[in-house]
Specification:
Length: about 350
């Protein structure tokens, strides 16, 4: 027996590649735009990007990233806990807190690390996490790192969530964690119902709004703003790799929560800070999101047009309003062949 046996025995991906239908890890030779160039020099329309606001190539965002590199260099050479906190990071944290109407915000190097670091720090042994089964993998990995008991409820099933809450009672310490926009299906969490249940059973709420921020709400503040429950959400997690055209993640929450997390979050303490270029780009992207709402309106308009157009042509697509529009094929092999037809 050898540790690497499983590596040699994993043949599925190579078999798909040999059949010419392996759909992953394609090389792009241009930036994320409406049209991208593949490694075979073919130009294709990009339908899989998270560049929701179209800002990754915006000259203002690129100039802000370049200016940050010129002033601070290419990296921070340390974690936020020690020498890696720049005034640029502090400025971004303050801007995010103000944007989302929270007392404070805390930066992480990626969105994945944010969920790992927030959940593992805030939920401890003897406490409970109630987790939607369709939540992002980073939420589940954060749950695994915590010492809390994890209870999974069926996707967006408020009766199942309430059944768990009822069994736990009001006196237990518990956190309901949900995506705001679910990244695979594009549907929204039922935040109004979750808020009602949290009040009834004395639970805290954390929303991963990676795909909602910039996209939903009158001011782009995400799923909670869309539903009008911003003040009822205790913790909002977000990432900068979607609407904000950069890389990194954050927590927006009460000051005491951010203060606690930054002293107990191992993924924050033992990871180098997000690069200056990323912070500079994010600040400029946030400014554009706040001042150019027409981008958001245009995005939702063309998402609706695309969804309706697919449905009119006989494709099976989910109901929804977000730009995440899965086309349901059913069979995995047929899905790979359908993907191959696109480029």
């Amino acid at each position: 027996m050898d540790l690497f046996d499983k590596c040699r025995e994993f043949t599925a991906a190579r078999e798909l590649a040999a059949a010419g239908i392996y759909p992953y890890f394609h090389e792009l030779q241009t930036g994320q735009d409406t049209v991208v160039t593949m490694s075979n020099q073919e130009n294709v329309l990009m339908f899989g990007s998270n560049n929701y606001m179209g800002l990754t190539g915006d000259p203002r965002v690129k100039a802000a990233a370049i200016a940050a590199v010129e002033k601070y260099g290419t990296g921070c050479s340390g974690s936020p806990f020690l020498n890696g906190t720049l005034d640029l990071h502090v400025q971004l944290q303050k801007r995010l807190a103000a944007f989302l109407g929270k007392e404070a915000a805390l930066l992480f190097s990626t969105g994945f690390l944010a969920n790992l670091g927030i959940i593992s720090a805030i939920a401890a042994k003897g406490e409970y996490i109630l987790c939607d089964r369709a939540n992002h993998a980073s939420i589940y990995d954060g749950c695994r790192l915590s010492f809390a008991k994890v209870l999974k409820y069926e996707h967006n099933d408020m009766a199942d969530l309430e059944a768990h809450l009822k069994r736990l009672g009001r006196e237990s310490r518990k956190l309901i964690v949900t995506d705001g926009v679910f990244s695979m299906e594009g549907d929204l969490a039922n935040l109004p119902a979750i808020v009602e249940l949290a009040r009834k059973y004395n639970a805290r709420i954390m929303v991963d709004d990676a795909h909602g921020l910039g996209v939903l709400g009158e001011n782009g503040r995400g799923t909670a703003e869309y539903y009008g429950v911003e003040d009822e959400i205790d913790m909002i997690m977000g990432t900068f790799s979607k609407s904000f055209a950069s890389i990194g993640g954050f927590l927006a929450a009460p000051e005491e929560v951010c203060h606690y997390v930054k002293h107990f979050s191992r993924p924050l303490i033992f990871t180098a800070s997000m690069p200056p270029a990323a912070a500079g780009a994010t600040l400029k992207a946030l400014e554009i999101i706040e001042t150019e709402p027409e981008r958001r309106r245009h995005l939702l308009k063309i998402a609706a047009r695309f969804r309706n157009g697919l449905r009119e042509r006989g494709f099976k697509v989910n109901e929804g309003i977000t730009p995440i529009i899965p086309v349901l094929v059913g069979d995995m092999t047929q899905t790979f062949y359908a993907c191959k037809l696109l480029f």
